[in-house]
UniProtKB/TrEMBL annotation:
Keywords: Membrane, Transmembrane, Transmembrane helix. The lineage of its organism: Bacteria, Pseudomonadati, Pseudomonadota, Alphaproteobacteria, Rhodobacterales. The chain crosses the membrane at residues 5-23, 35-55, 67-91, 103-127, 148-166, 178-201, 208-225, 261-282, 294-311. This is Uncharacterized protein. It comes from the Bacteria.
């Protein structure tokens, strides 16, 4: 029940309620001056720690440097090099408080669109984890249908995101009402195909783990909310973060002895909250641009986002025996 609530149940309830409120009143989260500050507090307590805990997973084991050289070394160095270039006058920058606007904007856009792969990848991983735990066999055709639907969501996210960008000739075909209508129709078709596929799995197996169906439904509700109320994006971020946090916690429980594990988890969570403040909040106070350009504090936060998306796609592969061991070790007892 805890798995169901944290990975999808709470999200479905909150996001579903937000959708119903918008449809019935036309008001979004952004319209509620008393709700928005509470959501920002939840950013500190939930969303930012979910970024930081991935670094504990990545750099907490020495062997990961050898197992994931791109995630641990190469990608961070490339991102740091790009950010460093954005500060240099040769590339149009003027130091840490006046980063090159074009490079900074490109990093932000890349992070915003890369997020689509991250959201759908995590949702798929959650579904496959619970399929493994419930010993549910999903055949290749069913995987194609379900994962194909997630690919459609990636396309929807990209087109939806491009709609908010300045008009460029290369983007113009994707910034039309027709383009948005096409991906909306594709999204509806993907939902229907996915629902029929899950029903087929349930009929064939005689049962379907609610945690699998819940993770599938949750992400479609996230994108439905983004379509009808973009100002409620914080709810989607928080839902994604909550869905993620249970998995690092399970790894921690399986990696260390049970004695004192609650205290250990408490210290780890507190360290992640503090780390989130250091990474995402304090740099915004330390670096203030005199000309209104992005600062290194802002761009460093974007860099962390991009690296987090790549890191999670690297370290959470269920086909790896070490990942299975750390996630499912408690089932051996």
């Amino acid at each position: 029940m805890t798995d169901l609530l944290l990975t999808s149940g709470i999200s479905i309830f909150v996001v579903g309620t937000a959708i119903l409120i918008f449809l019935s009143t036309g008001r979004t989260v952004g319209d509620e001056s008393d709700i928005l500050p509470k959501l920002l507090v939840m950013q500190v307590l939930l969303n930012w720690p979910h970024f930081l805990v991935s670094y504990k997973l990545l750099y907490g084991r020495r062997e990961n440097v050898r197992a994931y050289p791109l995630a641990t070394i190469i990608v961070p160095l490339v991102l740091l090099a790009v950010v460093g270039a954005a500060m240099l006058p040769a590339f149009g920058g003027a130091g840490p408080t006046a980063m090159n606007l074009e490079i900074s904007y490109a990093l932000w856009v890349f992070a915003a669109l890369y997020l689509a792969w991250h959201y759908t990848g995590q949702a798929w991983g959650v579904m496959m984890t619970f399929a493994h735990l419930s010993d549910l066999q999903i055949n290749s055709r069913e995987r194609l249908m379900l994962r194909g639907g997630f690919r459609v969501l990636i396309l929807w996210h990209v087109v939806w995101g491009i709609q908010t960008l300045p008009s460029y000739s290369v983007l113009t075909p994707f910034q039309t009402d027709i383009a948005m209508s096409i991906v909306n129709i594709l999204g509806i078709c993907a939902f229907l195909v996915g629902a029929l596929t899950l029903l087929q799995i349930a009929r064939r197996s005689g049962n379907l783990d609610l945690r699998i169906a819940g993770a599938w439904l949750a992400i479609y509700l996230w994108y439905l909310l983004l379509w009808i109320a973009p100002a409620a994006f914080l709810l989607v971020q928080l839902s994604h973060a909550l869905q993620y946090m249970i998995f690092p916690a399970r790894v921690e429980l399986n990696t260390h002895p049970r004695k004192g594990v609650i205290t250990r988890l408490g210290f780890l969570y507190a360290a992640c909250v503090l780390g989130g403040l250091l990474v995402f909040y304090l740099p915004e106070l330390w670096f203030v641009s005199p000309v209104g350009n992005p600062t290194i504090g802002t761009i460093f936060g974007v860099l962390v986002n991009i690296h987090h998306y790549y890191t999670d796609s690297a370290i959470w592969k269920l086909r790896r025996s070490d990942v299975q061991s750390r996630l499912f070790k408690h089932l051996d007892h």
